[in-house]
Amino acid sequence: MTKEENYLTIKENGWHEIVIKKSRFIATLARTETVEDAEKVIAAVSKKYHDATHNTFAYTIGLNDDHVKASDNGEPSGTAGVPELKALQLMKLKNVTVVVTRYFGGIKLGAGGLIRAYSNSVTKGAEAIGVVKRVLQQELSFHVAYNRFDEVNHFLTNEQIYVEKITYGVDVVIHLFINEQEHAELEEKLSNLLAGKVTFTKGEKRYNEIEITDHHYHEH
Predict the structure, then answer these.
(1) Were both Cys, which of 26, 66, 70, 135 would link to 58 (CB 3.0–4.6 Å)?
(2) Which among 197, 148, 188, 144 has a CA at the least distance from the CA of 167?
């Protein structure tokens, strides 16, 4: 697994509005994994706000920004779509489409003002909706005797391992998810803890989501 398989995106689809000098800027953000998904979002939002002055947009698809596009939709060139795209990229968000709808309030903002307004619409919108880190993890399960469960559970808590579920039968079965590059080390630690009397079963790989609350995106 490579680090690139872990990425930041928005927590869920949503929208957020800011007002600058009487102009309304409504940022609609959506998770999109294909260009087709992005185009559907843009079309739906443009239809919803068909009476708006502008429906500008930007999207980035793929973990390496494989497909990106930006549109000013009638605003002066470079003042809307590109600042929106740069805002997504600065926050390191992947697989996100944003449409920023503007209802003109009668006061011109100038090129610099427009760039700040559209950029801030995206940043504030993403922060209001929430940002998550999607981490590709390996499912691992193993059996533990009842008299060792508290000790193992305490160990997993200290190691900050995500336990998906615990089932109780003849013994205790623990199902957990671990970053793929870390599971060998975890298996070794648990094997040492249980004196080698443990067998691990690998399950599926899947993305789990960790909410980001500090907004220091460059550190993730």
Answers:
(1) 70
(2) 144
